[in-house]
Amino acid sequence: MLVVLPTLLMVIFGYAANFSVTTVRTTVVGPRALATQARLPSLFDVTAVEPDAGSAQATAALRRGTASVVLDTTTTPITARVDGADLFAAQSAVGALSKLGFSDVKILFNPGLKTSWYLVPSVIGLILTFVGTVIASIGLVREREAGTLEQLAVMPLRPTDVIGGKIAPYFVLAGIDLVLVTLLGVGLFGIPFNGNILVYALGAVLFLFTVLGLGVLISTLSRTQGQAIQGAMLVLLPQVLLSGMIFPLAAMPWAVRWIGYGLPLTYFSTISRGVMLRAAPLASLWRSLVALAVMASVIFSLAVLRFRRDLAPSRPVHHRSGPADGSAGV
Fold it and tell me: pLDDT tens-digit profile of 187-206?
């Protein structure tokens, strides 16, 4: 923890700390799409060219998150629509479009390019990560130190029953925190909530199961509260710096970016920003929802297996009484 971890964090985070976006996903629509594509610099990564599409399709592409910039050639001058919810890509795109002479640039979903609108949806997930990993892991380790788990080991309970019972209070508390910080974000910072609250709730529930599973897994690997805190911090720090919360994933090197794709906060940030700012439909967020569901299943399975190993040695072994030769005793 004192030698290897700081070295590892310095190398990984040194590569991750970059605000410069080198590519912006771009869609070009309208009859002059091919001609417009030809004059774009390398910053604009044109992923779709749709000559038959119009303004409605352009806005829909931004709402779905399939593009950060859409150039609409059905209008004169050409209209550039930019996804303001993707803050760093939007800032790079607006500057480049201005240099190219695009006079009609419309920023959607975050017109003022406010940093708080970009950060707060991720901060909500960060708070839930803290509750799920740090608080849950410390609480379970404290019960191990107090002997509570050993008492449960001699009772006719399955490991899944014990884990479910232990994380239920944390799940309720985290749910209360979710509602509280979401209301604070909307009321205090003026962040809009444009999307479907049920989609947001589904993503939050899957995310909570994932981070609570991480807390349980850390507790099974720890013997003291100090070890649990160290393990939780080891999980928490990458969530802050490699999930796209502060530094854009698109600006990270390929190897570091794949670490970000393995973090649950990456997908919750996508869901919360998509729902709150863009009113993104469920169909455009299903990949992030599936990723969280898979993570929750894998992490909980590992936690249950580890928990079973911890409880198994403590379970009493019952022997049949009587002589070894099987004859009846007197």
Answer: 999 999 999 999 999 999 99
